[in-house]
UniProtKB/TrEMBL annotation:
PANTHER family: AMINOTRANSFERASE, KYNURENINE_ALPHA-AMINOADIPATE AMINOTRANSFERASE, MITOCHONDRIAL. Keywords: Aminotransferase, Pyridoxal phosphate, Transferase. This is Aminotransferase class I/II. GO terms for molecular function: pyridoxal phosphate binding; transaminase activity. One of its GO terms (biological process) is alpha-amino acid metabolic process. It comes from the Bacteria. It holds the Pfam family Aminotran_1_2.
């Protein structure tokens, strides 16, 4: 069998990771702050990075907690706000790890349809009017995983209005925000709501998509009382997060490495989206999709009646991998799949889609 071409995992290919920049940042970290870099630290994270993130978001450092990746941030927030048997809102489809995490905590998960301009706020309003009272709504506003869609400004404002009216927290999970390669950036719901102390929004992001996934550094921005409560959980979980990784990220950011890395990633992924959409149109014209304006992922729908389980097996036999759409849903999606274009190089895309099309024709 030919070497597998993987559209499965949302990780950057090695050619767009700034290895030399990370080496330099590591050397700086150990040279300029050996004690802070090698010490335990505290649960709030590496103090200079926390301050840098706070300044970037226009909030106080007390509004920020730096964690071991954004999934750790998610887990802490869910532990703080999600109760067994109580409703939570997620997008339909949503990140599979979010579904697993919420279900594992016994939450009553309500999926609300996702449209190309984001969650269907009219459908959400109807759900709330019916008496459902969620504690939290998990929203990936920019280049959503798995769909690649972006929440419009109008829907951001509508979602905030619903949160205020019905008293739930918006969890603005935003790891892809910096990877916009087309169009104009939209204001975060955190900013639209007036900042971190309004009690309506908790924001999360990550350096995994802009620096490298192995660095495992994420963060939360939210009301001081929520961040303080989560910091206590963090202390009891691991005393402190990885100070070495966070110190390296800090040096990478302040040296200009982050901006250079983002520019590299955006240029590469824009090219890959163009190649991917052209290949799908040519090789698999039955496929329906919306080309994303940023991020790592694209959602593909095939004609009704397509069996994605059979397609998955046939694709594996031909050396091409993807993630089944059913993984991101509680039900349905048997004719859908997610394609990640971040980890494939430009010269792999045409061949990968040819193999996928051949697998589809074999069904």
């Amino acid at each position: 069998m030919a070497d597998t071409i993987s559209f499965a995992r949302g990780a950057p290919s090695l050619d767009i990771v700034d290895i030399e920049g990370l080496k330099a940042a590591a050397a700086q970290a150990f040279t300029e702050d050996p004690a802070g870099t090698t010490g335990y630290g505290t649960s709030i994270g590496y103090v200079p990075l926390r301050a840098w993130i706070a300044e970037r978001h226009g909030v106080a450092p007390e509004n920020v907690l730096v964690t071991n990746g954004s999934m750790q941030a998610d887990a802490f927030l869910f532990d703080e706000l999600v109760e067994s048997g109580k409703p939570v809102i997620v997008e339909k489809p949503t990140y599979d790890r979010t579904l697993l995490s919420l279900k594992g905590r016994g939450a009553e998960v309500h999926m609300v349809s996702l449209q190309p301009d984001g969650i269907d706020t009219d459908e959400l309003a109807q759900l709330l009017e019916s008496g459902v009272r969620p504690t939290l709504a998990h929203i990936i506003p920019n280049f959503q995983n798995p769909a690649g869609y972006t929440l419009s400004l109008a829907k951001r404002q509508a979602l905030l209005a619903l949160a205020k009216q019905y008293g739930f927290t918006i969890f603005e999970d935003d790891p892809y925000v910096a990877i916009r390669f087309r169009g104009e950036s939209l204001e975060t719901m955190l900013d639209l709501d007036g900042g971190a102390d309004t009690q309506n929004v908790v924001y999360a992001s990550s350096f995994s998509k802009t620096v490298c996934p192995g660095i495992r550094v994420g963060y939360l921005v939210g009301p001081k009382d929520v961040i303080a409560a989560i910091a206590k959980r963090a202390t009891n979980t691991y005393i402190s997060p990885n100070q070495v990784a966070q110190s390296i990220v800090h040096k990478f950011c302040v040296s200009g490495g982050l901006d250079r890395s983002i520019a590299t990633v955006k240029a590469a992924l824009e090219e890959r989206v163009d190649l991917l959409t052209a290949a799908l149109a040519r090789e698999l014209p039955e496929a329906e999709f919306v080309a994303p304006d940023g991020g790592y992922f694209m959602w593909v729908s095939l004609p009704e009646g397509t069996d994605v389980d059979r397609l998955f097996d046939a694709a594996n036999e031909r050396g091409v991998a993807f993630v089944k759409g059913t993984d991101f849903l509680l039900e349905g999606g048997q004719n859908t799949l997610r394609l990640a274009y971040s980890g494939v190089t430009a010269d792999q895309i045409d061949e990968g889609i040819k193999r996928l099309a051949d697998a589809y024709r074999s069904l």
